[in-house]
Amino acid sequence: MKDGERSARQYDAMAAEYAADNDDGAYNAYYERPATIALLGDVAGKDVLEVGAGAGPLTEYLVEHGARVTASDVSAEMVKLAQARVGDRATFVVANIEEPLSFKDGSFDMVVASLVMHYVRDWEPVLREFRRVLRPKGAVVFSTHHPTMDWELSPADYFETKQITETWKKGSGKYQVTFWRRPLTAMTHAIAAAGFVIEQLVEPEPLLELHARSPRDYAILATKPRFLFFRLRPT
Ligand SMILES: C[S@@+](CC[C@H](N)C(=O)[O-])C[C@H]1O[C@@H](n2cnc3c(N)ncnc32)[C@H](O)[C@@H]1O
C-alpha cells in the first residue's frame, strides 16, 4: 500500500476531530503555524501550492494575505473541511504527493507543506516535483516532525529511516497514525538531491501566550524540539 493511501484512510477517519484539535491546539496554533508563517514572508499576489493542507487553517491565512492558493490533500474528508472553511477563495484538489503533481512546470511562486512530509518515506521524488512546479525564484516552506522527537519513540537506531505508528487521542476517539522517522542527514540529502539549497532551518519555540493557556505544553515546547522547519530555494 502506498503511504498516501494509508494516510488518506487514517485522516478520513479522524478528520473532524483532528481539525477541531488543530484549530487552537498548543502544537498547531501556538507553535507550528506561527513558525511556518514567519518563514513564508510576504505572500500577497503570489501563486502558492499548499500540499497536505488538511482542514485549511493555513490556506485561510494565505488567501487572507493576498495569495492565489491551490490547496491539496490526500484525504477527501480533510479537503471537504478546508472547502467549507475557505469556500471559493482557493482551488482545492484531492491529491497524493507521492504521485506526480498535475501542474505545469513553473506554475507557482511557492510550495508550502505543513506537517505532511513525514507521512512519506521517499522525499526526493516529492521534492523534485515541488522544484518542477516552482518558478526559478520560488521557495518551498515546510515543517516536519523533528528527528529527535520521533527518535524518543524508537531509540534503537537514530540513523534508520523507520515507520512508526502512534495512537492519537482526538476528541472522544482514538486513532492510529503512521509516519516515517528519519535522521536529519536523510532530510538534507533529499533536499540537495532534488535541487534545493536550505535558506533557513528553524527550531522554533512556542508563542509566549501559550504559557498562560497551557503551562504544561509550554514547558514541553520551550525545552524540547518537536517540529523542524525549512525554507528552500532552487539551485
Ligand atoms: C498533520 S496534518 C497537517 C494539516 C495541515 N497542513 C495543518 O498544518 O493544519 C497532515 C495532513 O497531510 C495529509 N497527508 C498525509 N499524507 C499525504 C500525502 N501522501 N499526500 C497528500 N497529503 C497527505 C493528511 O491527510 C493530513 O491532512
Shape: globular
**Distinct small molecules bound, one entry per kind:** S-adenosylmethionine
Low-confidence stretches: none
What do the pLDDT scores average to?
97
**Rg, nearest Å:** 17 Å
How far the N terminus sits from the C terminus, by CA atoms, comes to 33 Å
Strand-residue proportion:
25-35%
Helix content: 40-55%
Number of domains: 1
Account of the protein in words:
The protein contains nine helices and nine strands. By secondary structure, it is α/β, with parallel strands linked by helices. It has one domain: Vaccinia Virus protein VP39 (Rossmann fold), CATH 3.40.50.150. The strands form two sheets. The chain has a seven-stranded mixed β-sheet with strand order 3-2-1-4-5-9-8, with helices on both faces. The protein has a two-stranded antiparallel sheet with strand order 6-7. Helix 1 packs parallel to helix 4 and helix 5 packs across helix 7. The model has no long low-confidence stretch (mean pLDDT 97). S-adenosylmethionine (SAM) binds next to helix 1 and helix 3.
